Amino acid sequence: MSFKRDKKEEEDSGGNPYQNLDKTIILQEARYFNQSPVNPRKCSLILTKILYLLNQGEQKFTTQEATEAFFATTKLFQSKDVMLRRMVYLCIKELSTLAQDVIIVTSSLTKDMTGKEDLYRAAAIRALCSITDSTMLQAIERYMKQAIVDKNSAVSSAALVSALHLSSTAPDLVRRWANEAQEAISSENAMVSYHALGVVAGSRRNDKLSTVKLVTRLARAPLKSPYALCLLIRLAAQLVEDDDSDAAQPYIEFIECCLRHKSEMVIYEAAHAIVNLRKTARDLAPAVSVLQLFCGSSKASLRLAGARTLARLTAKHPTAVAACAVDLENLISDPNRSVATLAVTTLLATGAESSVDR
Amino acid sequence: MVHTTMEGSLFEPTLYIVKGMCILDNDGNRILAKYYDKDIMPTAKEQKAFEKNLFNKTHRANAEIIMLEGLTCVYKSNVDLFFYVMGSSHENELILQSVLNTLYESVSILLRRNVERRVLLDNLDAVMLAFDEICDGGVILDTDPTSIVGRAALRTEDVPLGEQTVAQILQNIMNM
């Protein structure tokens, strides 16, 4: 124990620049930002300290202190250093909820978002949208639409995710960007297509008919992105739940088709949906056998996913789960406590006498 | 974000999947943490209490995943650092796992495979940027470590020798 403490002391003195930071001293250091020319490394370190303090959340910044720090930070826009600029964006985002008059950086950020430097653009969009309120949105709407269909995938993703965040405060405005988002669904980039689907589905949330159209179209020519596929499975599953007639058959077929996908994430998503939708044990068989395989995986998160979904099934179809009793018994002594607990409770619920004896 | 905890219900079709991400040191102290859902642990005090609890339950058992206080947490540790990604207990665990892999791999590349506390603190700014590139307000932004690092580690390595520490010079020599 004493050895450990010595080692700790040695470590603490061994250059942790973030030990015992004090808010007032940092705010004084931030005055250094006014100097010109800017020293990127030194300023970046001060910004890191500010962010570290905010992240620790123990020394609260008053509105005045946050505003002071924010305005000091804006002086750094004169530097062209990419890393420093990115740290400035991060600080703007973190301080925007605490400081006043943050909209003064709007024009600087708009310039970066439409500028030539690709490394600025995506991050500038996200920072800009975090300080913009719905009244200011109109002014940047045109740029946002362009950014959504930008060739650079980071820019496109940043604009789509920002649009999604904004849709909670300015839904009508963001709905006008749906055409651009629609176009981005077919992007080659997996993340862009995922974000675009999220935005489009979100804008149609209360419009069942157009959701049906969207899902039907995409289920015919499935997306490449595993993340987008997971989302599509969820959308399809919801439609099945709302309307259990024969009209839902194509969705079921699409989901079952996803059981044969190469990504485990998608396979599990499909199995989980089927287990929660299908009514008879026979229809469940393919999904249950996938979950059974998961239970024998070497990865703990797969075992947990399999066991957890099977545990849910016990309430509806104890017989279907009983078929997996042996696999679940193997999990009783699983090194992962969460997995073992799930296995035990599931077995007790299915309660086959043969397994109780063992 | 309304989450039904109903038994046997479907996953919610949303992009807001990540509830939080954090990196703790080997005493369970926070190095970096972000929580994305205002309804879950809104104050720093609650968050730190949760982190302590999480750490106590995970630092000895390297079991990859745990269900705690209504959240699913996937985790991974190395030397004296612990990486966690949290999501709703009603979420596809494998998606959370992929976010954790992204976080760990990105940090690992940034730290030139020396994933330990001191090296991380020396590169804290880059790690903060990587954090920000992986998840935006609970939405998974990118899962490709190479592109994340490409956007987070932009330090121009042109520090004059006189301003470098001995450790940095040694590190540069090692990496040649």
From TrEMBL, chain B:
Residues 18-156 form the AP complex mu/sigma subunit domain. It is found in: Cytoplasm; Golgi apparatus membrane; Cytoplasmic vesicle, COPI-coated vesicle membrane. It is a peripheral membrane protein. Pfam families: Clat_adaptor_s (PF01217). One of its GO terms (biological process) is intra-Golgi vesicle-mediated transport. It comes from the Eukaryota. Transmembrane segments: none annotated. GO terms for cellular component: COPI vesicle coat; Golgi membrane. SUPFAM superfamilies: SNARE-like. Belongs to the adaptor complexes small subunit family. The coatomer is a cytosolic protein complex that binds to dilysine motifs and reversibly associates with Golgi non-clathrin-coated vesicles, which further mediate biosynthetic protein transport from the ER, via the Golgi up to the trans Golgi network. Coatomer complex is required for budding from Golgi membranes, and is essential for the retrograde Golgi-to-ER transport of dilysine-tagged proteins. The zeta subunit may be involved in regulating the coat assembly and, hence, the rate of biosynthetic protein transport due to its association-dissociation properties with the coatomer complex. Oligomeric complex that consists of at least the alpha, beta, beta', gamma, delta, epsilon and zeta subunits. This is Coatomer subunit zeta.
